[in-house]
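Please fill in the sequence for the structure shown.

STRUCTURE ENCODING:
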């Protein structure tokens, strides 16, 4: 009898502990049921944690950021360039953070995100592939190239344990002065942008990395940078529908998992100077209801001035974003602000039932995304293996592919004097070491003149004077045009136009201001492959057939 009572007591206590045990991210039950069980079991602190993606300073995680992972169970970590000076340390850091996340109440893994767009924007460097960039994909206009680019970028991020990428950029390059976008865009054509963006997404998606289309609803028609101001785009809803929203409509129909909303004001549409990232109209009414997007809606970094231009403190900015329909708040820095955000949002959870409902819905989307991408056989590993870094970074086969893709994307703008004669004497003028190296490999009788990437007014004049004063020593000057500052130097050289050959990199839109140039090519990246491809064309190895993917006044192709 005593033994029977003992067993009954054991069964009773086992059933109590089983019922009361917290649900675990890895429980083998229906996904939606699991999500609801976790949300039901979460405290206010657990929920607020899941809607925050934070940055940290340095190569290794500080005790401060580890506290956020361990004790506050944040939803994600953003990897910036300053965190990625050493890939081995970065992989170890990600490993440490994911182990800490696994030991929290519900074992919910972290979203580990970065900006690895390819080309110009590449926050994780080291031995990671240097691609020719999105505009190069637009020039070649080859969907397989876009797919393969997303695939290789995804493979390399996967090796590091980075499971989310803020790419593809699907902004339409409508404004030639949109320097902050420039070669990050595929094209000035919305349909071409949509198809290349879709291919890029599908390639990266095949590796298990979460793609994030940006910057909704469109950053390509402003010459302002939302890091330092709030750009205002005076376009109508009809114009947005006809141009900027086309890529998003296609990507949404193909189940893009996440979209990043930019700090951009559209006063003609909202009758207000508020950023789209904090706008209920853009996040909820347009993106979710009208466009039927059900995935994760992420803010661009809320520390950027464009999100704070109306003077609201950062905690209230975060509240406004959640109420507008954001499901994940990206806040890069700093620890003091993180603490203020935390305390403020927790206080709201205690007094505002509607806010609790809003946060619950945001957490639901975060968990749904994590379960879909981090709980499958092809998921990005939570605990990256340092032994795999040298083996898989750069990804096997990527080197040859990106060289070939660079060759396919060179654009011939004006062909007078091509191919170059190796017996003549050349002056190479520019800023990039690879430009000089590849040029001197091709042209035995060449010297070089280096100027800064962003020269001040004195250096602009000094460089122009140097080139003009020494032009008589050379048969040709090959000038590397890469931004508006280098354009200022070039514009002072019109008197020697017969000797000038322009080698444009990144965006070629500056060529519109120098119609007197008689020989010019365009490439779209600044890696060795892009310069190698450009000099191959100048040397007459082949004749490219790519088309410049953005309109340049005064040029026809």
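FILLED IN BY: designer on duty
SEQUENCE:
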């Amino acid at each position: 009898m005593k033994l029977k009572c003992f067993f009954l007591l054991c069964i009773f206590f086992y059933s109590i502990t089983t019922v009361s045990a917290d649900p675990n991210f890895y429980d083998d039950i229906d996904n939606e049921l699991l999500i609801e069980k976790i949300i039901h079991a979460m405290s206010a602190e657990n929920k607020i944690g899941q809607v925050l993606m934070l940055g940290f300073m340095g190569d290794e995680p500080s005790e401060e950021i580890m506290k956020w992972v361990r004790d506050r169970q944040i939803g994600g970590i953003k990897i910036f360039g300053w965190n990625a000076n050493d890939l081995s340390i970065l992989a170890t850091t990600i490993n440490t953070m994911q182990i800490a996340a696994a030991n929290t109440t519900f074992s919910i893994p972290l979203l580990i995100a970065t900006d690895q767009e390819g080309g110009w924007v590449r926050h994780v460097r080291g031995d990671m592939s240097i691609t020719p960039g999105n505009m190069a994909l637009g020039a070649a206009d080859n969907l397989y190239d876009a797919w393969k680019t997303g695939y290789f970028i995804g493979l390399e991020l996967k090796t590091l344990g980075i499971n989310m990428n803020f790419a593809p950029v699907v902004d339409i390059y409508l404004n030639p002065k949109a320097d902050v976008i420039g070669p990050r865009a595929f094209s000035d054509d919305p349909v071409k942008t949509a198809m290349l963006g879709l291919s890029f997404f599908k390639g990266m998606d095949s590796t298990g990395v979460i793609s994030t289309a940006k910057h909704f609803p469109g950053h390509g028609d402003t010459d302002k940078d939302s890091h330092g101001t709030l750009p205002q785009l005076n376009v109508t809803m009809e114009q947005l529908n006809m141009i900027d929203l086309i890529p998003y409509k296609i990507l949404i129909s193909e189940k893009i998992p996440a979209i990043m909303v930019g700090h951009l004001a559209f006063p003609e549409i909202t009758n207000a100077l508020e950023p789209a990232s904090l706008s209920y109209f853009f996040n909820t009414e347009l993106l979710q209801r009208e466009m039927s997007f059900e995935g994760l809606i992420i803010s661009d970094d809320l520390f950027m001035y464009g999100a704070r231009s109306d003077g609201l403190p950062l905690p209230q900015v975060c509240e406004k974003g959640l109420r507008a329909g954001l499901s994940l708040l990206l806040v890069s820095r700093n620890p003091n602000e993180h603490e203020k955000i935390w305390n403020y949002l927790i206080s709201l959870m205690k007094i505002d039932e509607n806010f609790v409902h809003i946060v619950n819905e945001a957490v639901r989307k975060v968990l749904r995304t994590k379960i879909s991408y981090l709980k499958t056989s092809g998921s990005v590993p939570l605990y990256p293996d340092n032994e795999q870094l040298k083996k898989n970074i750069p990804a096997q086969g990527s080197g040859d592919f990106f060289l070939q893709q660079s060759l396919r994307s060179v654009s011939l703008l004006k062909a007078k004097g091509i191919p170059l004669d190796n017996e003549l004497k050349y002056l190479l003028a520019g800023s990039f070491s690879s430009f000089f190296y590849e040029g001197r490999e091709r042209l035995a009788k060449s010297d070089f003149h280096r100027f800064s990437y962003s020269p001040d007014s004195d250096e602009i004049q000094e460089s122009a004077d140097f080139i003009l004063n020494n032009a008589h020593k050379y048969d040709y000057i090959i000038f590397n045009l890469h931004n508006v500052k280098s354009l200022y130097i070039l514009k002072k050289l019109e008197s020697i136009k017969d000797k000038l050959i322009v080698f444009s990199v990144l965006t070629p839109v500056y060529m519109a201001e120098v119609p007197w140039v008689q020989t010019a090519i365009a490439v779209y990246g600044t890696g060795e492959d892009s310069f190698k491809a450009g000099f191959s064309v100048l040397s007459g190895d082949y004749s490219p057939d790519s088309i410049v993917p953005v309109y340049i006044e005064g040029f026809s192709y």
